[in-house]
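Same chain as my last thread, 525 residues:
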Amino acid sequence: MPTQPPTIQELRTHGDTLVSLLERSAETTPSASAVRCEGKTVTYGTLHNRATSLADGLHEYGLDEDDRCCLCLPNGIPFIEAAWACASGGIVASPINPSYQRREIAYQLDHADAAAIIISPDSVDHARDAIDDVDRDVALFSTEQDDGVDATIDELIEAGDHCTVERSPSDVVFQPYTSGTTGDPKGVLLTNRNFRVQILQTVARRLRQDELGDALVILPTYHITGFLLAVSALAAGQTLNLCRPDQWDPETVLELVTEEPIEEFVGVATMFTDLLDEYDETRHDVSSLQATQQGGTKIPPELQASFEETFNVEIMEGYGMTETTAAVLSSIDASLGNRRGAAGQPTGHTRVKIVDEDGTELPDGEAGELLVKGPQVMAGYYEDGEATEEAFTEDGYLKTGDLASRDADNYVTIKGRKKNTIITGGFNVYPAEVEDTICSHPDVRDAVVVGIPDERKGEVVATLVTPKEGKILDEDEITSYVLDELAPYKHPRIVEIREEAPRTGSGKIKRSVVESQFRERYDSR
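reply #2:
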């Protein structure tokens, strides 16, 4: 049901931490529905009580303030419950994609110095094996009892009292992982201040309405945009409708928009394609929608035009990173409205520069690297001072690694990536990780991974693999090997086996040449 909103001043004065913003809704509307997912609903009062008891249960089990607790959970009430509990207990939540395999989970547990991991039943085997690979004790908690599980969430809640630890704006509250193209994944240190700034900006825009409708999050909450959208809805006192992107069903989303007062959502290109294909005006009423937003790769112009005409709502572009606690550019807040093809204007408190290779600021219209600065930018990378120093300029701007230009009205258009990141179906794939996995195959000499444009997913992963001398490989073998080691969205959809590959003078495969060859060969698929 529509929610009577708080004032922005009420939120600003209620506290300066993530958990204090969430608590306001539990204090003022304890009987209101907080989260709805997969046929289950929890009220704000119940969610708050369970989260604070879980926080104390984690403390009783031995977790201290600033310990890391990994959350390997899909979108759902348990994820929100666990994240709220960590914030209440001063424990840093570190989300893990629940489709990750043993190797990926083990890396994050080890690098984050995790004291515990909370999982769903689907991840028990992978998590248990991953813990065996880590040279440290890691407690294993689950939503259900299983072999090797130390305790369930319900058991921790029953063992705990209510607990909310005093924290400061500069304290780290969330540690998601991202990666460069030439190194291991890095833990991004996001503080209470980062979230407070982004939540207040998000809620302030929603408060322009006299009444708030329900919120809908279809992006994964283990990614920064999905998580920010979720906690912003809870801070505003909305009912948060969560869908599981790993069980993506456009009909479910259209039914929710038809039945509930949902005014906006954020999706990726594949989701807009599926919603457009599934929409039936005789069964679906989408008149409550006032705006939609898209992330990931740019949405094809034909798809955007067709969706906007059919649904009678604009698709607004934006731009953000894990390191910036989601959006730093937005069309939905832009002073001159939406400009198709542009990512929008800088959000409040955000400064941007476009610079050349030497760091010299470029005039309007010229493309260079996008630099950003603002209170939503991360504190740094966990236990990696060198990477943190490299990520920032001397005057404190974050180097995004993306190429962009700016016009005279301060609209920024993203031109491409200096990095080699592949964005497939809204998920980031880092070539170095896939290459390392392929090269761990005993018969592989080397490999290079590139992204190929794809109408549905934006890009797909493609790889050129060379076998060791005397060894024979086939494409299906490489695909299966990667699927066994990494999340499904990272596996190459295009595999070529060649005895030789174009190389530099030092013997490295020429990535640019392979990418050009692959695009010429497969771009028209």
